[in-house]
Amino acid sequence: MESAISSPLSTSSHLLPSPSRSSLGSRSQSFPSLPNLRCPSFKSRCFLGIPFRSRQTQPIRCQSSNQQPAKDDGFVIEDVPHLTDFLSNLPSYPNPLKQSQAYAVVKQTFVVVQKDDPRGVHFRRAGPREKVYFKSDEVRACIVTCGGLCPGINTVIREIVCGLNYMYGVEDILGIEGGYRGFYSKNTLRLTPKVVNDIHKRGGTFLRTSRGGHDTNKIVDNIQDRGINQVYIIGGDGTQKGAALIYKEVEKRGLQVAVAGIPKTIDNDIAVIDKSFGFDTAVEEAQRAINAAHVEVESVENGVGIVKLMGRYSGFIALYATLASRDVDCCLVPESPFYLEGRGGLFEFVEERLKENGHVVIVLAEGAGQEYIAQEMQAVDGKDASGNKLLLDVGLWLTEKIKDHFTKVQKMAINTKYIDPTYMIRAIPSNASDNIYCTLLAQSAVHGAMAGFSGFTVGPVNSRHAYIPISRVTETQNTVNLTDRMWARLLASTNQPSFLEGNELHERVDKEDVDVINHNMRATSI
Ligand SMILES: Nc1ncnc2c1ncn2[C@@H]1O[C@H](COP(=O)(O)OP(=O)(O)O)[C@@H](O)[C@H]1O
Ligand SMILES: O=P(O)(O)OC[C@H]1O[C@](O)(COP(=O)(O)O)[C@@H](O)[C@@H]1O
Ligand SMILES: [Mg+2]
């Protein structure tokens, strides 16, 4: 397969197959005479203790070109599967982009190797390859969107359609409607650049979405029945888990079907990638709600504004919106337990700020303080159709708590204003920078699928767009790291209590070493 990308790696022997790769059909043929250079302490040394769980995530070891087996330069590539892994005689064709006017002026159309890459885990860099494994007129692609909404989904849909059509001359593109369950329905939407021309100006998803209803066998049956050979799946962690299962089934059946995931979540909690699309838009839109709360509470006596933002398990939107605003006195996130009463508690802090400024603004992520509400309300553990925990309204709960405390205990009249802009934030179209980001994601996915890669998800890793094995982005979730500088910056900006005792903080440092790994990941041009 490496011959298909004509990377200097394949001729310089810089990229070596791991033992398990040797059984992967033509993929390993670029390295027929190379020695097995895997070192005994391979896992622990090269992956910082994180074991590889599936074949897709088998590392490929890169040695320096002098091929000294004993030398360990710590360069590891976590590669994505390729169709030739299980379809060894798959023909390849010159990439039609070679004839593309758009790319004619681009100096380096095809990604090439960067020499002297630093140590750490590397992913295959996204971009067009010299050879493709699909003839344009034989491609039948489909696009599906699953899970919750997020600004920018329509831009991704539009750019997949336009990318396939304008760059690769693909005309047969289907929209699967209403999430995974849309695969089982009779109808599909025919997508052309004309049909999707304006959709990026609207929020939501043009293809509609749903939770639940994933049945791998039924989906792959349907893919086979419809003659689909490229599947673009836009969705969050749940969706990507579903995409991984679809890829595995496709591989088991030996189908020439490329499965490409585009990670989506407004919560910004998808692992490995730098940031998820729509997040910037959400942070920007949250400013309007925070500003409204600030205006309201500034205009009354003892005004207490509470703004609830999305963030089921991670408080990134709340954290960044707080940092961006400067009108927020206190930010509460799911990662940081807080308490209300006593010294160092939230009530004390609110009282101080009211005395000092006459008003206070609190921003909280919807997942914050769930344990306290559950204790008090003895609520049943509800789940949505996908199995995600249904959250209790922490905003309402906190508003009531503060009201009660100040009127009953402190005998102090306060004016509470609770704002819940969550769906309003999620439902808007993406801003300019997210639109650009969505375009990059969509085009990366198209280049990857055309080049025969499969079972991958796209996204920037340390600022470079990469093809990442799907399992890598689903095995963990990103959360706000309380020992990281960003949280420290927030505390320094708001001067709010940290609600953490010293000991607790040390325990957290141990748990959060996964972040170190993220810093060691890179996209590599191969
Ligand atoms: N573990 C899983 N395996 C297979 N499919 C899943 C899994 N988790 C969720 N899904 C499917 O993915 C879709 C979206 O999942 P959901 O959790 O609602 O949103 P998101 O993808 O945004 O996290 C649903 O159709 C759901 O059935
Ligand atoms: O009401 P819905 O549609 O279930 O969505 C609510 C949830 O969706 C989210 O925005 C994101 O969830 P997903 O990324 O899993 O779609 C959460 O922050 C929020 O709790
Ligand atoms: Mg999710």
Structure characterization notes:
This protein has 526 residues and is an alpha/beta fold. Helices cover 35% and strands 16% of the residues. The chain has 18 helices and 18 strands. It has helices spanning 2-5, 8-12, 42-46, 101-104, 153-168, 216-226, 237-253, 279-298, 316-325, 346-357, 370-377, 394-409, 422-426, 432-450, 470-474, 485-494, 502-511, 514-519; strands at residues 15-16, 59-62, 75-78, 93-94, 120-125, 131-132, 140-145, 172-176, 189-190, 230-235, 258-263, 303-309, 330-332, 359-365, 415-419, 456-461, 464-469, 521-524. The strands form three sheets. Strands 1, 2, 3, 5, 7, 8, 9, 10, 11, 16, 17 and 18 form a twelve-stranded mixed beta sheet that branches. The protein has a four-stranded parallel beta sheet with strand order 13-14-12-15, sandwiched between helices. A two-stranded antiparallel ribbon has the order 4-6. Helix 10 (346-357) links the parallel strand 13 and strand 14 (359-365). The longest helix has 20 residues, at 279-298. The protein is elongated and about 80 Å long. Mean pLDDT is 84; it is low at 1-71 and 512-518. Bound molecules: adenosine-5'-diphosphate, 1,6-di-O-phosphono-beta-D-fructofuranose (FBP) and magnesium ion.
